[in-house]
Amino acid sequence: MKQLNAEIVAVGTELLLGQIANTNAQWISQQLALYGVNVLFHSVVGDNLTRVHAEFEHAAKRSDIVIVTGGLGPTDDDLTREAYQLLSGTPIIEHKPSMDKISSYFDRQNGTMTPNNKKQARVFEGATILENKVGMAPGMIITKNNTIWIFLPGVPKEMKQLFSDGVLPYIKNKTQDTTTIESTMLRFIGIGESQLEHEIKDIIAAQSNPTIAPLAQTEGVAIRLTAKAETMKQAKQLIADTQIKIEDKAGAYLYGIDDETIEQKVFQLLLEQRKTVAAAESLTGGLFTDRLIGVEGASAICPGGIVCYDTKVKEDLLHVPSHITRDIGVISAECAESLALNVRSVLGSSLGISFTGVAGPDKVEGYSVGTVYIGIVDGKGTKRIKKFIFNGDRQTIRKKAVWKGYQLLFNLLK
């Protein structure tokens, strides 16, 4: 297999200002690693012609492949094409299929296309054009002085489509790699990254093919299994065999495969058990219910939810006794239990779940910011009332509470 060295240049002042994260470079590096392409440099440069040109000069001297993301849009500060033309002298021409696509879009929208939108259809003469099936600006691949230049939009969903459909097959051909690569993500809840790694340390120590990569996520922990084989069937079998070993060690925490979410898993379990759930949400303000009803078919397992932020709503609509709200407090196990019990009764569900706590910025009833009570009750008298202390700002605490609620519900149903 031919060895190629690559670098990734991200163009965009918004990246330098920290307004968005450069997740494109991370994702591209992960994909290239699967094909044995070494990524030696990551760089970010603002929307300035002189600086972009200078960065391209550096890249041309040291890499076999230069992948550029961003700067292909319609505005005056989108200067990637101009910087490469300054470097290479390559003419820029209008790509008629892309221009037709842009014109057609505005026709369908009954809108007026401004002249600057034509800029997105401009490509380098002699380049291989990659069709953008998600957005407007196409991708391009062109070789100059033995350096392969790949130009992609900065919008992640557009970049990923172009990279997957056009760039990876091109690179695979260049490296003369005849193997098939398959990857699967195992998703876990209720266990930390270090604990999960400890549970499967013997499997990790013995890994060769597939490779095992534990990954900390915003929510939960994931393990990526990547296998290489002569055929897709062989690669998938290698992954399946390793997955079985991991499930033997940590299967109690496994909730999803690949893109499966915790709310999809809870939906599936509720459906299988012919149960429904309703939520009383004070602290979370409807976030739990919003995620659940985002799953197609959720009406079969969720009759609704009640946002009970104000104490009067807790008392009048969900019948929380006044001796709890006034004498014990709304930030309490007793309030969480009453909310879960009564929302189940009011909405006629099999299960009731509740969230009450302090998201900040100030203490409530003497409780510090991050104090959260979550309650779950069912019709058989089973109840789980838990207290948690979450760190973070207001929105982070609310999101963590929802995630923990799904964990408790998943564990109960499983």
From TrEMBL:
<dbReference type="InterPro" id="IPR041424">
    <property type="entry name" value="CinA_KH"/>
</dbReference>
<dbReference type="InterPro" id="IPR008135">
    <property type="entry name" value="Competence-induced_CinA"/>
</dbReference>
<dbReference type="InterPro" id="IPR001453">
    <property type="entry name" value="MoaB/Mog_dom"/>
</dbReference>
<dbReference type="Pfam" id="PF18146">
    <property type="entry name" value="CinA_KH"/>
</dbReference>
<dbReference type="Pfam" id="PF00994">
    <property type="entry name" value="MoCF_biosynth"/>
</dbReference>
<dbReference type="InterPro" id="IPR036653">
    <property type="entry name" value="CinA-like_C"/>
</dbReference>
<feature type="domain" description="MoaB/Mog">
    <location>
        <begin position="7"/>
        <end position="173"/>
    </location>
</feature>
<protein>
    <recommendedName>
        <fullName>Putative competence-damage inducible protein</fullName>
    </recommendedName>
</protein>
<dbReference type="Pfam" id="PF02464">
    <property type="entry name" value="CinA"/>
</dbReference>
<dbReference type="InterPro" id="IPR050101">
    <property type="entry name" value="CinA"/>
</dbReference>
<comment type="similarity">
    <text>Belongs to the CinA family.</text>
</comment>
<dbReference type="InterPro" id="IPR036425">
    <property type="entry name" value="MoaB/Mog-like_dom_sf"/>
</dbReference>
<dbReference type="InterPro" id="IPR008136">
    <property type="entry name" value="CinA_C"/>
</dbReference>
